[in-house]
Design brief:
Elements lengths: L1 H22 L11 E5 L19 H7 L4 E3 L6 E3 L2 E6 L5 E6 L19 H12 L13 H5 L2 H9 L5 H5 L6 E8 L2 E6 L6 H4 L10 H9 L16 E7 L3 E6 L12 E5 L4 H9 L5 E3 L16 E7 L2 E7 L9 H10 L2 H7 L5 E3 L24 H8 L5 E7 L9 H14 L3 E7 L1 H10 L6 E7 L5 H9 L16 H11 L4 H18 L2 E14 L2 E2 L15 E2 L5
Parallel strand pairs: 1-10, 1-11, 15-16, 15-17
Antiparallel strand pairs: 2-3, 4-5, 5-7, 6-7, 8-9, 9-10, 11-18, 12-18, 13-17, 13-18, 14-18, 19-20
């Protein structure tokens, strides 16, 4: 009877959503002529992924506006050149010579008119910027009296030093790359402190976009460097035509694009819909592609429907519960093991993800080239009775913080936390759940006043290399950072990870990454919960949809099926 009532309630709720969306104002027809509408969420949106928080995804726009030196090829460890055309590595593995593509044009926009093509100066500028090297800045002559009259150069230097680059900070890129220099206009040389097999993968991530040095210097001269993040200029297949904050971005095809021409002239990225109403907006034909639909609504879709199709892929992401090793109680391995055995992860996957995720028995997601299919002998099964016996008499009262932001790796963090709280209560553990924002968490970490025993969070990356996945959230280098929220540090883990980087043989790299993973699963600083799939639904007239494991796609491959006469 309860199930029947619940089904009827869901039906009424869905009907209410249909009425709500039908009553909402539609996108003006003037914005949709000769184009396609892509509905997605505004969470994590940025025109500059370099400054966006690590572990967020905003590449639906940046992948269209910018290019990178390399792209990930076929879900593998291999990168394919993009703005680069080829590369070579020195015999000692400490130098990479990259040959650049010629004839690449920057966008010609109402706010910027380029005077030259893309060249090595742009690559040196873009990479040095995230490294925090002053060499990318305009020359600052301390003895030049002109700078005292007009201190724009000095302001530029001081402001530039304050910019954060969370992803590159999390992987300690400035401890990997020693320098980058222009050998000639179409060749750059990257010198490394030590051999590092992950560098090219990092340069293929969504964060490693290439800016126009000329545009940045022009903005600096006008004392308007912030415009670099709001009025983007890139080399990609689309450029920004206009943008309404938290509403939409209209992209216009770049007819000077160096690669294959995009087939659709206008793309409207609709940012205005929440997850619960995005699918219904799609059914109202207000968008031809809807990304990240509400997983609880996926049951409304039918695989053989002639109007649309659903596309999914495994994702490079992980939701997990981290134990705070700064708390003496959480250093107790028996307690951590018992808590992990208390959590019914299969129930979380069923009730929170609606079976659109897999229970994570490893740290490295299954889609990674380094993932092993073997189940480790120390797999932590759901064992509530054993957990209760282990925790008997301990009278635990724990604070669990929840980073309350809907992400790919967890569509409903607070509900997940409540399920975990209930599970732990059955084992005799009293849990107080506190919802926190990322800004609050950063502030508490900076003051060293965070008082959580556990924190529910997650991680995602934009390449399949385990280095960028495990090192930020588990290495000694990131202890007390917002990425390593367990504050766990084991030198053996770092050694395994470093061994993987110094080896060029893929099989040996994978072996070391799995040794590092096995160590994590034995010591259990985090409890892996789930790896979520990525979903989108598209109108059947839209062809060329190729979604990556990172949720991104290239709009340039999209086209409309010609109507049959």
């Amino acid at each position: 009877m309860l199930r029947r009532n619940l089904t009827f309630f869901c039906f009424l709720l869905n009907m209410g959503l249909f009425i709500q969306v039908q009553a909402a104002p539609r996108v003006p027809e003037s914005l949709t002529e000769n184009g396609l509408i892509y509905c997605t969420n505004v969470s994590g949106f940025s025109f500059n992924p370099q400054t966006a928080d690590a572990g967020t995804s905003m590449n639906v726009v940046t992948e269209q506006i910018y290019n990178k030196l390399f792209e990930i090829k076929n879900h593998s460890a291999t990168v394919t050149p993009s703005l680069a055309v080829s590369y070579s590595t020195s015999s000692d593995g400490k130098a990479i010579l990259i040959n650049l593509r010629k004839g690449v044009k920057f966008h010609h926009t109402p706010w910027f008119t380029p005077t030259r093509d893309f060249n090595a100066e742009d690559v040196v500028f873009s990479i040095n910027r995230v490294l925090g090297h002053d060499t990318y800045l305009p020359i600052l002559d301390q003895e030049d009296p002109e700078h005292d009259k007009n201190p724009q150069y000095r302001i530029f230097h001081e402001q530039a030093k304050k910019v954060r680059f969370p992803y590159f900070d999390s992987i300690k890129l400035n401890q990997k790359i020693k320098s980058i220099t222009a050998v000639n206009p179409y060749q750059v040389k990257i010198e490394l402190f030590e051999p590092d097999s992950s560098i090219l993968s990092h340069l293929a991530s969504q964060y490693a976009i290439i800016f126009s040095q000329e545009y940045a210097y022009q903005l600096n001269a006008d004392n308007n460097l912030a415009q670099l993040d709001t009025h983007p200029v890139g080399t990609g297949p689309y450029q920004v035509q206009n943008h309404v904050y938290n509403q939409y971005v209209r992209l216009l095809r770049n007819d000077n694009y160096w690669n294959k021409d995009a087939k659709i002239k206008h793309i409207l990225v609709d940012l205005s819909t929440e997850r619960t109403s995005r699918l219904i907006k799609f059914f109202n034909n207000e968008c031809q592609i809807a990304a990240y639909p509400e997983v609880s609504q996926l049951g409304l879709l039918h695989g053989n429907d002639e109007r649309y199709y659903l596309q999914s892929t495994d994702g490079m992401n992980l939701s997990y519960l981290a134990f705070n090793f700064n708390k003496p109680l959480m250093q107790n391995e028996q307690i951590r093991q018992a808590i992990s055995q208390s959590i019914n992860r299969a129930r979380i996957v069923r009730n929170i993800y609606h079976n659109t995720a897999t229970v994570a028995n490893n740290i490295i997601p299954n889609i990674s080239w380094a993932s092993t299919v073997n189940t480790p002998e120390f797999e932590f099964d759901y064992s509530p009775k054993q957990a209760k016996n282990s925790l008997s008499g301990k009278n635990l009262h724990l604070n669990m913080w929840v980073l309350n932001e809907e992400q790919v790796y967890n569509p409903s963090p607070l509900k997940t936390a409540e399920l975990i709280k209930w599970d732990l209560a059955q084992a005799g553990v009293e849990v107080k759940v506190r919802s926190v924002t990322r800004v609050f968490l950063l502030d508490q970490l900076a003051k060293k006043t965070e008082d959580y025993d556990m924190i529910l969070t997650g991680w995602l990356t934009e390449n399949l290399d385990p280095d960028g996945f495990m090192r930020p959230i588990l290495s000694c280098d990131t202890k007390d950072d917002i990425t390593n929220l367990s504050n766990w540090c084991n030198p053996k883990f770092n050694q395994f990870m470093d061994n993987a980087l110094s080896n060029t043989r893929l099989q040996e790299r994978a072996r070391n990454y799995n040794l590092a993973q096995d160590l994590v699963l034995r010591e259990l600083p985090v409890v892996p919960i789930a790896s979520a799939k990525r979903f989108l639904v598209a109108n059947r007239k839209v062809k060329g949809v190729q979604m990556s494991p990172f949720g991104s796609m290239h709009f340039s491959t999209l086209y409309f099926e010609k109507e049959k006469k």
